Amino acid sequence: MASQPRxxxxxxxxxxxxxxxTPTAENLxxxxxxxxxELELSPSRRLIFDAGTGIRLLGNQLSESASEPDIRIFLTxxxxxxxxxxxxxxxxxxxxxxxTFHGHRPPGLTLQETLERIVSPPFFPATLxxxxxxxxxxxxxxxxxxxxxxxxxxxxxxxxxRATGYRVDGDGRSFLYxxxxxxxNAAADAALCAAAKGVGVLxxxxxxxxxxxxxxxxxxxxxxxxxxxxxxxxxxxRLILFHHHPHHSDEEMDRIVAAARTVFPTTDAARExxxxxx
Length: 278
Prior knowledge:
By secondary structure, the chain is α/β, with parallel strands linked by helices. It has 7 helices and 14 strands. The radius of gyration is 18 Å and the shape is globular.
């Protein structure tokens, strides 16, 4: 007897902004917290992608009373806007909470050393080693990671000091989380295009407008046009623009979405609280 398809997992954006938080009135509709995406597998188990300031809000919604909380955090890289919420993530301080950190090995340090340096004086008053949670550190390379019925595949991105995207597949559904990538590196562009092929939901860096990018080449970010062209070439099901520039107001984001839809009609821009199914 064939097994029945499982109920979809829920994915939710908790932070969508790039570079720095923008807690201002002109950003309220899309949101001003930095990068964080949650995939809930069960009330006690979830995958989290990046630990920008959005992870603080996510942590505030989680319950310490959940049975054996088990959380995996996949980090794209270690620039401030992708890790600055980590010291304020409540589950870090729950006794017995299992936290597994996934990320590439930065030059000269292990993943564990990198995160312990971030959560320590003089940058933070306490140390990561003092927290009562149970922590594991798993450095990613090119090999897929199996988690239940899901496969998480790392994807190399073109960004200063390196970045890693993640494609998640399971039960015939998929999404690709690929923020912080600048087109122009042939190997990284090919890897990203291959990873995006046929993906259900493509979440991709659209930090700059094409005009802004001309003045910021080498900064490691893409444009709405490049994102839309990638989605079209990859035949993605849906495009979600991500890592919004801190200077882009809600009105500017509306204009960016409208422009991107002329290239790839099923385009949206990520907003805090936006959800999709996997």
